[in-house]
C-alpha cells in the first residue's frame, strides 16, 4: 500500500508526540491505529498531518515488528491493504481489477535486492525495465466502453473507490471519446490527476486576490479540487491527467510490454509522461534515478520518486503479486524534502545590502538528502503569519539547492512557555554585526542595518557600489579584486581604498605590477569628483542617481546636507517622507559620519555652492525630456546643461513635462508631446531658453 505522500508544503497540524511502547503487541496495535489515522487524513480528508518521512518511519517500524513477530500479523494491518474507505458523499465504485500500490525503495541496497529477486525468480541474468517518474497527485482509473468515457473513480482502498466521473469530465486533458475508428470494447486507464506547478502558482495568486485560503502544495490542490461535490468548482481548477498503465483491457492490440502499452495509450491521445524510458538491469535503473533527480526541479509537475516495472507483461504475469503490491514493480523514492524538527533558537543574519534575516536554528534533521540545522524565516511578517516560536515543533522543507525554510508549526506540540518572537526587540534595534541602528520602513517587510559604510557584512557591496562608474568611478576596481581586498583584510572602510599601496596590490592574485600601477592611478584620479556622485556613492537606501543630483543641487554642500532635518529634506524635489527618513537615518549614524569624514581626509573633494535651497537655478522646477539626436551635443551634455540650470530631465512625456527637446529621428516622445500640447524645442531653442532665462535672472 502506498503511504500517504503529504506533498511538500502541507500543514502538518496533528503530528503525534514520540511514544515509547511496552511490548511488541502494544507497539503493533498503536502503530496500526496511528497509521490508519494518517491514511484517513490523507486519502479521505485530503488533510495530511505529517510529512512523508514521519509516515515512512512508522510504516517501516510496523513492517519490521510484524516480520519479527509473524504470529501478530493480521489481514487488517495497514501493511496488508492499500488505504482507507472512500467518502460517503460520492457513490462507491468496485474496481474490476484492484488498484494495488507499490512497495518503496529508499536505499540503493533495497533496489539491488529488488533486482536480484526479479532475476532469481525469472532465472535470467538481466531484466529490461520500463521506467517513469512517480507523479505526486491523486491516483484514478478511467473506464471507456466502445471508446466512450463512462466512469472515473479514485483509488480508494484499492478495491472500492469513489465515483468522481462528473469532476473528471471537467479535465480537458481527458478525452471523452477515444479518437480511433475501432475503439476497444472495454479499457481501464490508470493514471494520476495533478496540478502543474505554473497552474498551482496562478491558482494561489487568485486565491490571495480573493482573500481565500491558499493551497499548501500542488498535490493537495489537485486532490481537493477533484473531490469537490460541485463539479462547477472543479471546472475552475486547472487540473491535469497523466496515464501510467492499463487495468482491464478488452479488444486492444496485442501488447507484449509495458512500454508498448504506454505507446498505445499515447496513440489514443491520452497524456503520458515524456520522461518514460526503458533501461537494462540495475545499472540502468540507477542511471535513470540520477537523471530524473537532476531534472526534477525543472519538470512542470511535482514528483517524489521514480517507478520501475518489469517491461515484459509475460514476465509480470509470471512474477505475480504479494498481498498489497506487484512483485514486478517498485517505487524508488527521493530523499524526504520535508521533515519534523524543533526550533532551538532564532538568530539573525545581515545580508550584503543590510537586510536583517531571521534564521531558525534547528535540532539537526535529515531532509532533502542532507542534514539540516538552519532554516530561513524570511522576515517578521512571515514569522507572524506562521506564528513561529523558539521551542516549536515545525515542518521544514528543502527542495534541491533551495535554502531550507520552515513551512508550518505543529501547534499540538507547542510548549506552554513559548513567547511570540519580535525581531527588532530581540536584537535591541541594533545590528548584531556592527551595532548600528536597525530600522524597518513602513513600506517594507525587511528590517535593515543603517551602518552601510561601516558594517562588515555589507562591506563588499558598499565598496563595489562606491567604485562603480556612475558613482566615484574607480576604473579596474571590480568584483574579483574587491573580494580579494576585503577577504584579505586590506579594506575595512571605504577610506582604506585610498590607502592601498603598490606592494599590497601587486601581491594579489592575477595582479601584475603594471595593473597595480593602473589601479593607483585610477584611485588618484577618482579623488576629484562631484557632490552628486559622492552622495550617490554612499549607497543611501532609496537614493538613486537622480535623487543624489537633486540633493546636491538643493543643498550645495555636504555640510548643509548633513545638517538637514526631515522637513528640510522634504523640500527637495521628489523627496518624500520615506526617502527623507532613509537619508536622515543613514546620515545620523555615527559610524557613517566617521567614514564620510575619513573619505574627505584621504583627499576626496568637489566644488560646492550655496545650493538651490537659497539660490534658484534658471530652470528650477522645470521638467524637460530629451529625444532624438541633437546636432552638436550629446544627450549627456544636454542633460548636464539642463541640470546645471536647475532643471530635471525625465525619461517620458506627461502633462507635467514643461519642454521636450527634439533632435533628428525623434520618435514617440515627440508625438506624445504634440498630442499633449507640450512645448517642443530644438537644440538652438534649448540654448536660447537657457540664455533668455539666465538674462532674465541676471536682470
Structure description:
The protein has 699 residues and is of the alpha+beta class. The chain has 4 domains: 92-333, DNA ligase/mRNA capping enzyme (D-amino Acid Aminotransferase, Chain A, domain 1), CATH 3.30.470.30; 338-426, OB fold (Dihydrolipoamide Acetyltransferase, E2P); 471-601, 5' to 3' exonuclease, C-terminal subdomain (DNA polymerase, domain 1, Orthogonal Bundle), CATH 1.10.150.20; 623-698, BRCT domain (Rossmann fold, 3-Layer(aba) Sandwich). It has 25 helices and 22 strands. The strands form 5 sheets. Strands 12, 13, 14, 15, 16, 17 and 18 form a 7-stranded antiparallel beta sheet that branches. Helix 24 links the parallel strand 21 and strand 22. Helix 1 (24-44) packs antiparallel against helix 2 (52-68).
CATH H-level homologous superfamily name of the largest domain: DNA ligase/mRNA capping enzyme
Helix content: 25-40%
Structurally, how many domains make up the residues? 4
CATH structural class of the largest domain:
Alpha Beta
Profile the largest sheet. 7 strands, antiparallel
Oligomeric state of the chains in view:
single chain
Give me the CATH fold name of the largest domain.
D-amino Acid Aminotransferase, Chain A, domain 1
Give me the secondary-structure category: alpha+beta
N-to-C CA distance: 94 Å
Keywords: DNA damage, DNA repair, DNA replication, Ligase, Magnesium, Manganese, Metal-binding, NAD, Zinc
Domain BRCT: 614-699
Family: Belongs to the NAD-dependent DNA ligase family. LigA subfamily.
Binding site for NAD(+): 52-56, 101-102, 132, 155, 192, 309, 333
Amino acid at each position: 500500500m502506498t503511504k500517504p505522500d503529504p506533498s511538500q508544503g502541507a500543514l502538518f497540524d496533528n503530528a503525534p508526540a514520540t511514544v515509547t511502547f511496552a511490548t511488541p503487541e502494544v507497539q503493533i496495535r498503536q502503530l496500526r491505529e496511528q497509521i490508519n489515522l494518517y491514511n484517513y487524513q490523507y486519502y479521505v480528508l485530503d488533510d495530511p498531518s505529517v510529512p512523508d518521512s514521519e509516515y515512512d518511519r512508522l510504516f517501516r517500524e510496523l513492517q519490521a515488528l510484524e516480520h519479527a513477530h509473524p504470529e501478530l500479523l493480521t489481514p487488517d494491518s495497514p501493511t496488508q491493504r492499500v488505504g482507507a474507505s472512500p467518502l460517503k458523499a460520492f457513490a462507491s465504485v468496485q474496481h474490476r481489477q484492484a488498484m494495488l500500490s507499490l512497495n518503496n525503495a529508499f536505499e540503493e541496497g533495497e533496489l539491488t535486492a529488488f533486482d536480484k529477486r526479479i532475476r532469481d525468480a525469472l532465472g535470467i541474468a538481466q531484466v529490461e525495465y520500463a521506467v517513469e517518474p512517480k507523479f505526486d497527485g491523486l491516483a484514478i482509473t478511467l473506464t471507456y466502453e466502445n471508446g466512450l468515457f463512462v466512469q472515473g473513480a479514485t483509488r480508494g482502498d484499492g478495491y472500492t473507490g469513489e465515483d468522481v466521473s462528473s469532476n473528471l469530465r471537467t479535465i480537458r486533458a481527458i478525452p471523452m471519446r477515444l479518437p480511433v475508428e475501432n475503439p476497444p470494447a472495454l479499457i481501464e486507464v490508470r493514471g494520476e490527476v495533478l496540478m502543474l506547478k505554473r497552474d498551482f502558482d496562478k491558482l494561489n495568486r487568485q486565491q490571495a486576490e480573493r482573500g481565500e485560503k491558499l493551497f499548501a502544495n500542488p498535490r493537495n490542490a489537485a486532490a481537493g479540487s477533484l473531490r469537490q461535490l460541485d463539479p462547477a468548482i472543479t471546472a475552475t481548477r486547472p487540473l491535469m491527467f497523466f496515464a501510467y498503465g492499463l487495468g482491464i483491457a478488452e479488444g486492444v492490440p496485442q501488447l507484449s510490454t509495458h512500454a508498448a502499452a504506454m505507446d498505445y495509450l499515447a496513440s489514443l491521445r491520452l497524456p503520458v509522461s515524456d520522461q518514460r524510458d526503458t533501461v537494462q538491469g540495475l545499472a540502468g535503473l540507477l542511471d535513470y534515478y540520477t537523471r530524473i533527480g537532476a531534472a526534477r526541479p525543472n519538470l512542470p509537475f511535482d514528483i517524489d520518486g521514480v517507478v520501475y516495472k518489469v517491461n515484459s507483461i509475460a514476465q509480470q504475469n509470471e512474477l505475480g503479486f504479494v498481498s498489497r503490491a506487484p512483485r514486478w514493480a517498485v517505487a524508488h523514492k527521493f530523499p524526504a524534502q520535508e521533515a519534523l524538527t524543533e526550533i532551538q533558537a532564532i538568530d539573525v543574519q545581515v545580508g550584503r545590502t543590510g537586510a536583517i534575516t531571521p534564521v531558525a536554528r534547528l535540532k539537526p534533521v535529515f531532509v532533502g538528502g542532507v542534514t539540516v540545522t538552519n532554516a530561513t524565516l524570511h522576515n517578521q511578517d512571515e514569522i507572524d503569519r506562521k506564528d513561529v516560536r523558539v521551542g516549536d515543533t515545525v515542518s521544514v522543507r528543502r527542495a534541491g539547492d533551495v535554502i531550507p525554510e520552515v513551512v508550518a508549526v505543529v501547534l499540538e506540540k507547542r510548549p506552554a512557555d513559548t513567547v511570540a518572537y519580535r525581531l527588532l526587540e530581540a536584537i535591541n534595534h541594533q545590528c548584531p554585526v556592527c551595532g548600528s541602528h536597525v530600522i524597518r520602513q513602513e513600506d517594507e517587510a525587511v528590517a535593515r542595518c543603517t551602518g552601510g559604510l561601516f558594517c562588515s557584512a555589507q562591506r563588499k557591496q558598499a565598496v563595489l557600489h562606491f567604485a562603480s562608474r556612475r558613482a566615484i568611478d574607480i576604473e579596474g576596481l571590480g568584483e574579483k579584486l574587491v573580494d580579494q581586498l576585503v577577504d584579505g583584510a586590506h579594506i575595512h572602510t571605504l577610506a582604506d581604498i585610498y590607502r592601498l599601496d603598490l606592494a599590497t596590490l601587486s601581491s594579489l592574485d592575477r595582479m601584475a605590477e603594471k595593473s597595480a600601477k593602473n589601479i593607483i592611478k585610477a584611485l588618484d584620479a577618482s579623488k576629484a569628483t562631484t557632490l552628486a556622485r559622492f552622495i550617490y556613492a554612499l549607497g543611501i537606501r532609496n537614493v538613486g542617481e537622480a535623487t543624489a543630483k537633486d540633493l546636491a543641487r538643493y543643498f550645495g554642500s555636504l555640510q548643509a546636507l548633513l545638517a538637514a532635518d526631515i522637513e528640510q529634506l522634504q523640500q527637495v524635489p521628489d523627496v518624500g517622507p520615506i526617502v527623507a527618513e532613509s537619508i536622515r537615518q543613514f546620515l545620523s549614524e555615527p559610524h557613517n559620519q566617521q567614514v564620510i569624514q575619513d573619505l574627505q581626509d584621504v583627499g576626496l573633494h568637489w566644488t560646492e555652492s550655496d545650493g538651490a535651497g537659497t539660490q534658484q537655478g534658471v530652470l528650477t522646477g522645470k521638467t524637460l525630456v530629451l529625444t532624438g539626436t541633437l546636432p552638436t551635443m550629446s544627450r549627456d551634455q544636454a542633460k548636464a546643461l539642463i541640470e546645471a540650470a536647475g532643471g530635471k530631465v525625465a525619461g517620458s512625456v506627461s502633462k507635467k513635462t514643461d519642454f521636450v527637446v527634439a533632435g533628428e529621428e525623434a520618435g514617440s516622445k515627440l508625438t506624445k508631446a504634440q498630442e499633449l500640447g507640450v512645448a517642443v524645442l530644438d537644440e538652438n531653442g534649448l540654448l536660447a531658453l537657457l540664455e533668455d532665462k539666465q538674462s532674465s535672472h541676471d536682470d
